[in-house]
């Protein structure tokens, strides 16, 4: 559940408080045409951003509490570690410089971010369609990439598209949306592990949501010349050398 591409140039001033937000546009690294309006200035107020981050991660708290009450297997421990990493980076995230106000972007981000939780609550048991040894490498790729991506992204995380610090290191040196790539692998593994027509639709729709989310985020972020340059340096959205 993250806007994993919330980026501005790493050399720019990190905005961490209201006084810093009041410095000149040049010092902030904001192009004149992208100067924030009153709504964005309110959304980028530290306490507002922190409150929104806490509200955004609350739906993930219940699954963690549920897991802690049960016998934890390896898969559950991995999920627990991933969610804790997500919560930690969300509540300590950097203050954005610019936030997308398009209602479609916000609705899409919310639906995509919580789709996995919804899917787990309504999916059918389904049936295994390939040997477990085929699914395991796909699942492990998902686990590796999601941790690699989240650690690379660090505190530059959010839900709706917003400009924070440009991340072009780690996983983001090779692809622009590595966390979404991990999500794709996870959806594929889930569909192969528990196939049914209903489950196939749920997993496929989840992939479609993140494809559209990637495109809308880039439509917003590419208005910044620094991010546009990053897109040229890293041409692959999800799979290096392919897409």
Summarize the helices and strands and which ones pair or pack.
Elements: H1 18-21, H2 25-28, H3 38-43, H4 46-57, H5 61-69, H6 74-91, E1 98-99, H7 103-122, H8 132-153, E2 162-163, H9 178-193, H10 197-221, H11 225-233
Antiparallel strand pairs: 1-2
How would you portray this structure in words?
By secondary structure, the protein is mainly α. It has a single domain, classed as Up-down Bundle (Four Helix Bundle (Hemerythrin (Met), subunit A)), CATH 1.20.120. 60% of the residues lie in helices and 2% in strands. It contains eleven helices and two strands. It has a two-stranded antiparallel ribbon. The protein starts with 17 loop residues before the first helix and ends in a 10-residue tail after the last helix.
Describe the structure concisely:
The chain has 243 residues and is mainly α. It contains eleven helices and two strands.
CATH class: Mainly Alpha
Beta strand %: under 5%
The radius of gyration is 18 Å
DSSP summary: helix tally: 11
Summarize this structure as a short list of keywords or feature phrases.
mainly alpha; Four Helix Bundle (Hemerythrin (Met), subunit A); two-stranded antiparallel ribbon; about 0% strand; globular
